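Q: Fold this one first, please.
A: Sequence and structure below.
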Amino acid sequence: MQPFTVKAIEIIARIPEGKVMTYGQIAAHAGSPRGARQVARLLHSMSRKHGLPWHRVVNAQGKIVVQDEESRFAQLHSLQEEGVEVAQDGIVDLNRYRYDPSH
């Protein structure tokens, strides 16, 4: 595994319940500020294998962007179960729920 992949997996695994991170934020903390798409691919291919809390990752606007309707509902439901409020348009308030691993 590439060092970026290892670091990104570690970061995602540490997102606490009730918090979210963005794809770009994870990429930046893993050492590749422009690697948001790599994070998306990594979540798609490795979440199950590594038991990653994929549902805690949203886009830069705080929006749930999973295309598959069933997975989208699962993400919404999982976030709500953890106490994260998701607006009608699928947006999470990043000022309130964003996790910063550097703190």
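Q: Good. Now the second chain.
A: Here it is, same layout.
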Amino acid sequence: MSSYSRRAFLHTLGAASMAAAGTSIFPSVVAAQTAQYKLKYANNLALSHPLNVRAKEAADAIKKETGGRVELQIFPNGQMGTDTDMLSQVRSGAIDFLTQGGVVLSTLVPVSAINGIGFAFRDYSQVWAAMDGDLGRHIRTEISKVGLVAMEKPWDNGFRHLTSSVKPVQSPADLKGLKIRVPVSPLWTSMFKALDASPTSVNFSEAYSALQTKVVDAEENPLALIETGRFYEVQKYCSMTGHIWDGFWFLGNARSWSALPPDLQAIVAKHLNAAAMAERADIAALSTSLIGKLESHGMVFNKPDIQPFRAALQKAGFYDQWRKKYGEQAWALLETYTQKFA
């Protein structure tokens, strides 16, 4: 595991009760009452996830460097509501910051989900070249048009893999009719329909329950979320498809952001972007170490050949459909960093 402590990663998900009292679960962040700017930051991930570990470090660094003028109050684990609830709140200013993936953000900024094109990225070298490069800049420009500000460095959620309670997925034929939970996203739904699966859109906070009650038999997520979400309790098989790379934009309400003086904006952005880079390293390390941990919980892993899946999507017209949706400019930027889709 990388430099953040193992104890922090394995920390219990308790302390949510503090949120009911209207406070962040990080006492050191909210202890002082003299901050000139108190900024609420919400996300849907467990306290033990590297994103929250690194966000806490950033909050402490921001508070220290600004002499206590800026406090970033962190509300993890969906305390502020579902993904769609929190997106509405950050737009209205009810919360100041949110980390959100392009899949949910695409309801406002369609091109923000372009990284979710099935089997687009081969590895992280392609991902970060694109997201830190021209493709990422293009997406941030589009985000700025809906009253939000995106920090420069996206955070990592990881490559997504398929889990199932009924069978391993070794080929596209294994997906036929499979009831699979997907995020609330036309792109995700379209992809799994093109692969003849039966996708159902469920918010992340409700995914465990949907699997437990057999509303769905399968789901797909990065290994870190499979572990912290305890999906291994209700899923037997994990197929290492890496079908989508998924990340988070650190989004701010444009009015809240503009209310910060430029010098404080620079400090906040510096530490949030540095935290993003550290979190990327954490996720990369965990993506290797968590296989053994999940196996110890009884999960069975397999590694399918992804080319038949890609061919099936191409044959079904999936890539042509989304090329038209995103437009030639965005698609050309994507293909600058990936292999061609046709």
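Q: Anything worth noting on the second one?
A: The CA atoms of residues 109 and 167 lie 36 Å apart.
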